[in-house]
Design a protein that fits this description.
Elements: H1 3-16, H2 24-42, E1 63-69, H3 75-82, E2 100-106, E3 109-115, H4 130-138, E4 142-148, H5 154-165, E5 168-170, E6 177-181, E7 187-191, H6 200-209, E8 215-219, H7 225-233, E9 237-239, E10 241-246, H8 253-260, E11 265-267, H9 276-287, E12 289-294, E13 302-310, H10 315-322, E14 330-336, E15 345-347, E16 357-363
Parallel strand pairs: 1-3, 1-4, 4-10, 5-9, 7-8, 10-11, 12-16
Antiparallel strand pairs: 2-3, 6-8, 12-13, 14-15, 14-16
Helix pairs in contact: 1-2, 2-6, 2-7, 6-7
């Protein structure tokens, strides 16, 4: 029996098992086995001698956004509209066969947008070059999931299932569980909150399935067995996802209103160029980037060339971006903007910068 058959057998058993107190240990074990087999499936096969052709695109710009969706939902049209890159778009499926990069210039930042080939059902098992597409998506900062507004919710649930099975968690945060394997001493289990979904016995069963008999486990929040398995495996990617419903010019206003009110969702029409500016604003918010301007002593700030950093960046990050030796020669900095109590404020390396702050760095 191959890995795919084993996975489908376990999935069928999970589906037909009733969820109650008596079966929770059995379900936890099945989920642990399923995660193990899926991890094996993602490993490159040792027998394949010829090197497969990937979609490796060099990372450029300040952030990376991946476009994921089924064939013919308007990914290539969206790329052509947003960037100066022309991606071939036609009315038949699988027009795009490889990864096509483009650059969006917005608020002084260069955002790399990747147009990936359409995903089909079973992509996680390698159908239709699905593995390469998903491997590129794992390296992105934000995923834009392009959906056809005329198809309803079917596409969204199928794509989420495909991405979940390869360890991409959309719009979720990392579970607050401390886990450390040890050399001896058995399994030490503690929790700072009341657990309603996991018990000590279930945690031990899952760890034994992974051949872990000595470990320290501390639950700091009420997590499910799936989230605990994610912590053990450790190769999960947690990333923000924006659900973009295209072709809204083909559905009723009531349906557009319903889709637009969903969390993390934006409705657009590439054909009629509707709502694209709002999508860019949402994308900027999800990327959590900040622009910081520099100023020389006795001169006006340079608003033409911004330094783009992640939200929560400190003065030290700004120094490293300007020059790697600047932090070691740093004396103090003067900052104008919303991160200070008064302008200009004299700050040190640990001061957190905010969007559109102006900084002047003084060396020793």
């Amino acid at each position: 029996m191959g890995i795919l058959e084993k996975i489908s057998e376990i999935e069928k058993e999970i589906a037909r098992t009733q969820k109650n107190k008596a079966t929770e240990y059995h379900l936890g074990l099945l989920k642990a086995k399923l995660a193990k087999y899926r991890a094996q499936l993602l490993e490159p096969s040792k027998s394949a001698s010829t090197k497969g052709e990937g979609f490796d695109v060099m990372k450029s710009g300040d952030a990376r956004v991946a476009l994921i969706g089924f064939p013919s939902v308007g990914k290539s049209t969206f790329l052509s509209l947003m960037t100066s890159t022309a991606s071939e778009a036609a009315s038949y499926e699988f027009t795009t066969l490889t990864c096509i990069p483009g650059v969006i210039e917005y608020k002084g930042a260069n955002i790399q947008l990747l147009d990936l080939p359409g995903i089909i059902e079973g992509a996680a098992q390698g159908k239709g070059r699905g593995r390469q597409v998903i491997a590129v998506a794992r390296t992105a900062d934000v995923v834009i999931m392009m959906l056809d507004a005329t198809k309803g919710e079917v596409q969204r649930s199928l794509l989420e299932k495909e991405l979940e099975s390869v360890g991409i968690r959309l719009n979720k945060h990392k579970p607050n569980i401390y886990f450390k394997p040890k050399k001896g001493g058995g399994i030490s289990f503690n929790s700072t909150v009341t657990l309603s979904q996991c018990s000590e016995k279930l945690v031990q069963l899952i760890l034994h399935e992974y051949k872990i008999f000595n470990a320290e486990v501390l639950f700091r929040e009420d997590c499910s067995p799936d989230e605990f398995i994610d912590v053990i495996v450790g190769n999960r990617v947690y990333m923000p996802c924006l659900y973009v419903y295209n072709k809204i010019d083909q559905i009723s206003m009531e349906e557009v209103d319903r889709l637009a009110r969903k969390p993390n969702s934006v409705v657009i029409s590439c054909g009629m160029k509707l709502n694209l500016d709002f999508l860019l604003e949402m994308l900027w918010e999800y990327l959590a980037l900040t622009c910081i301007y520099t100023k020389k002593r006795g001169q006006r700030p340079d608003f033409t060339d911004a330094i783009i950093l992640r939200k929560g960046a400190s003065v030290e990050h700004v120094c490293h971006r300007i020059h790697r030796t600047l932090a070691s020669q740093f004396k103090y900095a003067l900052v104008w903007g919303t991160s200070t109590k008064y302008s200009p404020q004299r700050v040190g390396l640990t001061h957190t910068m905010e969007h559109e702050d102006v900084i002047q760095i003084v060396k020793k």
